[in-house]
Predict the 3D structure of the following.
Amino acid sequence: MIRKITLSVYRFILFFSILIGTKTSLYAQPPTIVPQALSYPRICAGLIVNGVPFNEYNATFSYVNFPAGTEFVVELSDEAGNFTTPVATTKISFVDNPSSQQQTIKFAIPTDLRGSDTHSIRIKSSLATASPSGKFRNSQNLTEFPIYYRTFVESFNINERNASAMICSGGSLSLSIDKSTPTVPSPADFSNLKYKWFKDDVVIAGQSGTTLIVNTPGVYFAQVDYGGCLDENFSSNRVTVTSSSSGSGVTINSSLGNPFCANGSGTVLTATSGNSYVWKKEGSDAVIATTRTFSTNESGVYTVEVDFGGCKATGSINLSSNGFTASIDVAETTTIEEGETLSVSITTDAATPTFEWYLNGNIINGATTENLLIAVKGNYKVVISQASGCIATKEFTFRVIGPSGPSTVIPNIIKLSGLNPYWNIPEEYKNSATKVMIISSNGDMVLDVNNYQGDWPQTAIDFKSVNPVYYYVIQGDAGEKKGSITVIK
């Protein structure tokens, strides 16, 4: 009897021990995160939706044995799918269901992400002792899949928007992504992007930069390389590259057409794509530009020599303006005697023209017609403007000098109400080697210049009870001259 009771007690103790052990094991289970399958096969952020880039994605997961207040975040792997150096995503919002121990996080990926086809995502908690979750599986049951932020989501240009280019046999040229302008954006503004280059619709292996060196004929274009998020709408124009042993066929295009309206910064002349360029005008030997494009407001015959790498060729354009014509009836340099005047007139077909006359770089007040009566020697300029139709301007410059030969007569009176309201000096003193100083009767230096051009005074003179007197000193190769100047109204 005693043995039977002992056996029963033993069995009870064993059962209770097993029960306690089971409960202890249950409560000792570590905190665990279990990701659920994603509803999408890839993450292709950045596409413009309702005027803003789309960048919102959901990740749902279950969790057990985490204390209240634990925070969870979505982590992004490196390009190879590893989490050695994970990237943090931005948490937009979350929906928590503590009763079922489940949470859905809405997140956004970094806008500067370069992207790859083998990214992964996982969940990490704020509990330091808890391990992150395993990798999420996408809707295709893959743990590594394309994740990109598509920074640039439109078409773009290469080869300065030109549809053709030329190389010499055995030569080469560069095709590049065009830079942005104030009105035309470019993916070249974003350093994190990579590209795919194509020749005859076949991708060129190993080419992912903004420039492609071309040495064979074909049709070339580029795409922003978003891997599994690739969109053919994010492609460039196509460029047909031909080969020539002579380099013949150079053309020049005018951005504003030909004839063009000469205003603003002018028209942009663009040559056939090559390796180097030499621009000239009107048969002159002077080089005016060495880039593929340049801007001009001037009519004329322009030529460009293009080096295609092994051969060269020259193209030309007779550029003309449809603005207006104008002429002036004075020579570039005209001599007048002391006390003599010169009448200058402009003839133009401009619609409602306006005129501005300048003496030594200063506008002449009140001179607003096509005629000007000149009594003062110096450097003159007239600007004619047409304010309707083709908005355009033209200008002429000329110089009025005194009689040839040395002259030592330096005027000592300035009459402000006369035809010559400035202190004019002989031409022999108007050069950069001659220094002219004017000092007031109070000892103030009012002028101290080289290459004086006969345009003082520029400011109003303060008349009191007497006519003001100034003193001058002229120092130069012709010696030193000193004297006084009396200013009268």
User: Anything to note?
Assistant: Residues 1-27 have pLDDT under 50 and may be disordered. The first helix runs from residue 2 to 27. The CA atoms of residues 322 and 406 lie 47 Å apart. The helical segments are 2-27.
